[in-house]
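INFO batch 0412 | record 1 of 1 | parsing
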Amino acid sequence: MKKFTKILALAMAMLMVVAAFAGCGQKTNDEKEKKVYTIVSDNAFAPFESYDSEKGEYVGIDMDIIAAIAKDQGFEYNMMNVGFDPALAKVQAGQADAVIAGMTITDERKLVFDFSDGYFEDGQVLVVAANSDIDSIEDLNGKVVATKNGTMGAKFATENKGKYGYTTKAFEGSNEQYQAILNGNCVACFEDYTVIGDAIKNGIKLKTVGDKINPSYYGFAVKKGTNAELIKMFNEGLKNIKANGEYDKILAKYGL
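INFO prediction complete | emitting tokens
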């Protein structure tokens, strides 16, 4: 009987040791690693995103807005500035969780993306060289217009080239289409009003012609049917940074 009692006591002690070690290996909900979201963006779309060589990092309105919202909502993320068209492709392919890149909310894009509330209103405008004699879209007849892949400016240019008699030539980024105008390979492009305004302010020899086209809102977006919690946090954070004045400070920082 004594022998049995000793064996039982030893077995209980061993079970307690095993349980103790098992407990050490378990994490509470608070200790579990938080999800780190992968967010993609354009790589040249100032003042929303551009590379600051002195700081060695990307800066801009979108970069500051997502940073402020992440801080407000307590989520973590890694930013990848890959270019506009590649950014959309990565989200659609499930290689990134979300995109913030001066992306206009449209019914067509809603078929493949879920959008946040709009966080900035803009529109497109006709852009030509500073010394150009083009006064209206009608003057583009017979000429070549630059487009940036995947953008609303490219969509407008493509949809209206038959109506106004011009052809289009596609480029990967904003800077490339600006250079095409400056070197005479193209005569114009359609660019977001705030973006070209920033470029002109910073010395590029271009000008705008006519009024803003298709005013609409930019949105933060995820692949349709995914990351609903991220959209919810973005919307809540956006409300909060607007209420506490942080949003206005961000725009003011970039002269808006």
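INFO post-check: The chain is about 40% helix and 25% strand.
INFO record closed
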